[in-house]
Each structure stands twice: as C-alpha cells, then as structure tokens.
From TrEMBL:
Subcellular location, record wording: Cytoplasm
GO BP term (any one): histidyl-tRNA aminoacylation
Protein name: Histidine--tRNA ligase
Entry annotated with the keyword ATP-binding: yes
Gene Ontology CC terms, in alphabetical order: cytoplasm
Organism this protein belongs to: Corynebacterium kalinowskii
Protein origin, superkingdom: Bacteria
Length: 425
C-alpha cells in the first residue's frame, strides 16, 4: 500500500484575520447594525471596486501619507496598469460620484459602504493588513449640521452594538484661508527645535504630523507649539462652534483634542476620532471628518464632503474588551430528525419545503441516533423539532416537539407547514 502524501496546511496571509463561527455571526451583526443605522439616517448603499487606479489614492489620500507612501498593495496588472487594493473608501466614493454624475442631482449625496480595505502595516493586535470598515460620506453641502449628523451617527452605531467605553475626540483643521499661515507659524516653531533628520523632513513636508510624535522628549518640546484651533479663520471657527453646539443639543459627549493628527491628507475643518480604552495601542475604532477640497482634487466640481469610517474589526475587539456580545449566532426555528433511510429521504424534502415557505430550518445529518440528533436541535437553537421514523411515515404523520415546553403532538405531514407557520407567527 502506498503511503498517502501529506501536504503542509496553509495559513491565512500574515495580518489577515479570518472570522469563523462563533465570532463570524458577531462580525456580521456589527457590520449590519452599522449599515442599518446609516440607512436609518438616509444614506444609500454604494458598492465599489476593491482595486482602483493607483493614481486615485496617490492624488486623493496624499503622496506624503504613510498610507500611500508605505502601506499600499500596488501591482501592475497583466495589461501593465498600476492598480492598488483600496486602502480606504473616501477616494473611491468620490471617484464614483464624479464618474456617475451623482453630484449633478439632489444634494447632499449621502452614501454608505461596507467591506475590506488593505494596508501593508506592521501586524499587531487590532492592526491588520486586511481591515473591515463601514463608512458614510455626505457630499455636496457645506453645512455644519451635516458634520454633526455624521458624528452623531457614528456615536449611535457604536452604542447600538452595546459599546460604552469609548470617547469622541474632535478638532478643527481649519480651511484654505487659515491653514497655510498656521502651517508657516508651526514650521517656524519646529525649525527652532533640535529635531532629528527624519522629524525635520516631516516638519518640512507635513508639519502637523510632527505634533503626533509620541516620544516623551518630543512631547516635552512640543508643549508650547502653536495649535490650529487658536488660529482658525472666523468662518472655520463659527463652523466648528456650530458643530459643537449641535452635538451638545443631541447629547453626544466629546472632548477637544487640538493635537489630533489623522493619517490621511484630505481633511479640513471638523475632524474626529472615536477612541476605545480597552484596546491598547490600536485604540481608534472609527474616524472621519470634512474634506472640502477632495472632489476638485480628483477632477470634479468644487464641492465639500464629510464622512467617517468605522473599524468593524476593532469594534469587535472592543465588544470583547467590554465583555459584550451582539448575537448568540445563527439559529433556526425548526430542526428535523429522521430515523431510517425512507424517513431521511422524506425529511430532506420536508426541510426544503419549509425553507421554500420562508421558515428557517435545519436537520440532523449522518447517523447519530435520536439522542445525538436532539443535541443538534439544541445547538441550532431550534424552537421545534420534527421527528420522523418508519411508524410516523406509514401513518403520514410527523411528531412535532415543542422544545421549550417539552410537549409533543402528532401532525399530518400534509398540514405540518401550515401548522408551523401558525405557531411561528
Ligand atoms: P481611518 O481613520 O484611516 O479613516 O480608518 C477608519 C477606521 O478603520 C479606524 O478608526 C480603525 O478603526 C480602522 N482601521 C484603520 N486601519 C486599520 C488596521 N490596519 N487594522 C484594523 N482597523 C483599522 C479612513 O479610512 C477614512 N476613509 C474615513 C473617512 C471617511 N473619512 C471621511 N470619510
């Protein structure tokens, strides 16, 4: 007898999570709950490509960001076009809005999306190379009421899955009329400091990002750095204050973090992050803000936008940290148990008929005996079991067990679907 060749099993690529039962139903529940909340607020679903022209992200997200310069999955396809697995959703939404002329209709255009994004980051707890987000974008109207709507929606998304141990951090990054002058002021301050070469380069390209330096000696040096919030134009300041007032009205709690630095370059005015304390270093469970220059940057009209991306992976980790659960998993209403080959055959088509009638149903497979099969009914969370043996089959009946009340009655096979429909309401 020849020995069967043994192959090494594969693992998922590094930094890429699988969601398998019993966690996968929770994953789905989180994603669906976020999407449902977005629908309740009038956001319509948009389904976009997983890969796009590389230039879209380079131009939209910003060449100097880590996301674009270090983390993109970029490759040449067989036609030698440079394509990139989407690292985020906003640029793609904007591309599609322009391409399909959605911005020529009723404004704001309110869209929501869900799915995987790809960033070649160093994997660690809560930081993945394939990450999942639910996002919304509200495009075309520069109204602080939209910023407030988007932020309150994110807050509601997290609360509706049962999270409470998070906080909302908020700031304003100003606009075209005040940011350039502030940038100069900050650079003036930074260039007087004894910066290492890398930091000096950062100060040159994107000085705001230097404010995010976590090293204690840098933090100390940056204590007196000028802050954007103290240099806002009158218009940006009024916009920000209106947003805060509306959040107060809606009782959405927040803290101001004037040193917040987002990893994407398109933001202006209101920017925010939701931070969870139970997650260690990767504490951002969602973030977003206004991006008024992005549409024009991508070749469209001069229209504003505001939105967020919520991290589904991290929301799940946060639920675990808070010892919360969103669902008990998939359950069916009816579970079939058949004893003997003829009964099995009849049960297969009965379960199919139940499913055709819109009743959730499953059955015992393999030959497990009555006791083992009834355990399956338990595991499936069924309310009713249908037991079919030779005796029942002969008399055209099936035993209907009410699993909660431990009662049983015989029902005719012809009438069982109607009977179950009535019982399940
Ligand atoms: P972002 O802050 O880069 O924003 O990502 C949003 C959320 O995605 C983060 O708060 C985090 O929860 C999750 N996330 C990001 N990277 C990872 C990772 N490597 N592993 C696990 N989770 C991660 C955006 O992507 C913007 N497009 C959001 C937006 C929409 N702004 C305006 N509109």
């Amino acid at each position: 007898m020849s020995e069967a060749k043994k192959f090494q099993p594969f693992s998922a690529p590094k930094g890429v999570p699988d969601y398998v039962p019993p966690v996968s139903p929770e994953f789905l529940a989180v994603r669906n709950t976020f999407a449902h909340q977005a629908h309740l607020a009038g956001y319509e679903h948009i389904e976009l490509p997983i890969f796009e022209d590389t230039g879209l992200f380079a131009r939209g997200v910003g060449e100097s960001t880590d996301v674009v310069s270090k983390e993109m999955y970029t490759f040449a396809d067989r036609g030698d076009r440079s394509v990139t697995l989407r690292p985020e959703g906003t640029a793609g939404v904007m591309r599609a809005v322009i391409e399909h002329g959605l911005d020529r209709g009723q404004l704001p255009v309110k869209l929501t999306y869900a799915g995987p994004f790809f960033r070649y980051e160093r994997p660690q707890a809560g930081r993945y190379r394939q990450l999942q987000q639910v996002g919304v974008e509200a495009i075309g109207v520069d109204d602080p009421a939209l910023d407030a709507e988007v932020i309150a929606l994110a807050d509601r998304c997290f609360r509706s899955i049962g999270l409470s141990g998070f906080r909302l951090e908020l700031t304003s990054l100003g606009d075209d009329t005040c940011r350039p002058a502030y940038r100069e002021k900050l650079q003036e301050f930074l260039f007087k400091l004894p910066l290492d070469e890398e930091t000096r380069r950062r100060a040159d390209i994107n000085p705001l990002r230097v404010l995010d330096d976590k090293r204690p000696e840098m933090k100390e040096m940056l204590v007196d750095a000028p802050l954007m919030l103290d240099h806002l134009s009158a218009e940006s300041k009024a916009h920000f204050e209106t947003v805060l007032g509306m959040l107060d009205d809606m009782k959405v709690p927040y803290t101001i973090n004037s040193r917040m630095v987002r990893g994407l370059d398109y933001y202006n005015k209101t920017t925010f992050e939701f931070v969870h304390d139970g997650l260690g270093a990767q504490s951002g469970i969602g973030g977003g803000g206004r991006y008024d220059g992005l549409m024009a940057q991508l070749g469209g009209q001069e229209l504003s936008g505001v939105g967020f991306g919520l991290g589904v992976d991290r929301a799940l980790l946060a639920l675990k940290a808070e010892e919360q659960q969103v669902t008990a998993g998939v359950r069916v209403d009816v579970y079939g148990v058949a004893m003997g080959a003829d009964a099995k055959r009849r049960m297969v088509s009965l379960i199919n008929d139940l499913r055709m009638a819109g009743i959730s149903a499953d059955m015992a497979y393999g030959d497990r005996g009555l006791k083992g099969a009834m355990k399956g009914a338990d595991r499936a969370g069924a309310s009713y079991a249908l037991v079919l043996g030779d005796r029942e089959l002969e008399s055209g009946q099936v035993a209907l067990k009410n699993l909660a009340e431990h009662t049983q009655e015989d029902v005719s096979l012809e009438g069982i679907i109607e009977k179950l429909r009535a019982l399940l309401g």
